[in-house]
């Protein structure tokens, strides 16, 4: 792609560094900015820089926060003996949206993935193990995605904490609410049979 | 969508102002930036701001340029009697990529579209008519998209310049090279029959 302006080329190249944004999309976005008032680009650029430079991570759960201890961790109404282990802050947002969880979270920041060069020490695992060692946690819920990497990460953490007195669970795998049985994959359908729940408890939600 | 940080929320909101970027995509992009070094976000923010504040438009053809007269307009090897009228700088880039056009361009900056509140005076039409009045242009090629708005814009410009001595043409509509006839729409196929070209001239490209 040949550009008639170096400034345009640089902006397009930088935008196309973002995941899922190719050169053509980047050009479309940048040309859109050119049609908008200058202030709008300034506001966007400042919002991105402020976010990148000033954002903090909660010192307890590693969720993104504007203060040292995030709103969830500092909320006295939440059950601090119940901790849900997630991969990403997006998972925290997704679970919070359901309003069905009243415990705390622990954000790992990824999954163990040797193929991508991500080992246990690149994730927030030590602080989780330390929390378990302190003995405050009664139950740890693993809510990682059920991929090879997710299962590996679950198992690694499980091995680290198995000598301590803590109950571990994983979120239920099964047929999505509203889905047709015949279209479900065999593993999911199999698990949903093996891990069936009493009918009365399914009436609660 | 509830955010655990105001800085994050603001960055996501600003990113999602861009066309085709929803809140979820914006969040994915912003979280990606958080995983990259801070410098990368600074470079992106600066590239966008420099582009928005310092970019110039060629005073002759209205193409984006770093100088007052763009490289194409200032190139003595190009035929200034032949002008191709396009909607957008992306069209200039697309035609330049073919290396088959040696004339100059005129970028309108859009199409006449009453539905979107875009009238002739929002586009670079007056400067085009003035160029024609000066008598330097021998042929004007309309290369707008063949939509209602494109046809309206072509016709509006044609009406403005019909009293001056200039030959007007439009780019050929027809079956794309490599396409199967049976899948072409009737209008395109019809036009390709009516506007057939001598066989020998089709051998040139």
From TrEMBL, chains A, B:
Family matches, as PROSITE patterns: RECR (PS01300), TOPRIM (PS50880)
One Pfam family this sequence matches: Toprim_4
Source organism superkingdom: Bacteria
SMART domains to which the protein is assigned, alphabetical: TOPRIM
Keywords associated with the record: DNA damage, DNA recombination, DNA repair, Metal-binding, Zinc, Zinc-finger
Domain Toprim: 81-176
One annotated GO molecular function: DNA binding
InterPro entries to which the protein is assigned, alphabetical: DNA_Rcmb_RecR, Rcmb_RecR, Rcmb_RecR_Znf, TOPRIM_dom, TOPRIM_RecR
ZnF (C4-type) intervals: 58-73
Record has Cytoplasm as a keyword: no
Example GO BP: DNA repair
Function: May play a role in DNA repair. It seems to be involved in an RecBC-independent recombinational process of DNA repair. It may act with RecF and RecO.
HAMAP family reported for this sequence: RecR (MF_00017)
Entry similarity comment: Belongs to the RecR family.
Protein name from the UniProt record: Recombination protein RecR
């Amino acid at each position: 792609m040949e550009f008639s302006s170096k400034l345009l080329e640089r902006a397009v190249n930088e935008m196309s560094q973002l995941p899922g944004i190719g050169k053509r999309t980047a050009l479309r976005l940048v040309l859109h900015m050119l049609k908008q008032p200058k202030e709008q680009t300034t506001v966007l650029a400042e919002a991105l820089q402020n976010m990148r430079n000033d954002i903090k991570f909660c010192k307890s759960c590693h969720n993104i926060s504007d203060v040292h201890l995030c709103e969830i961790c500092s909320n006295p109404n939440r059950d601090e003996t119940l901790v849900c282990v997630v991969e990403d802050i997006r998972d925290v947002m997704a679970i919070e949206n359901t309003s069905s969880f009243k415990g705390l979270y622990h954000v790992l920041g990824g999954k163990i993935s040797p193929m991508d060069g991500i080992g246990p020490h690149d994730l927030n695992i030590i602080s989780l193990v330390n929390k378990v060692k302190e003995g405050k946690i009664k139950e740890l819920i693993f809510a990682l995605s059920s991929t090879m990497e997710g299962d590996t990460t679950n198992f690694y953490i499980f091995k680290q904490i198995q000598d301590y007195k803590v109950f571990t669970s994983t979120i239920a795998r099964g047929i999505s609410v509203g889905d047709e049985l015949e279209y479900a994959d065999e593993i999911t359908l199999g698990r949903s049979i093996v891990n069936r729940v009493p009918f009365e408890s399914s009436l609660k939600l």
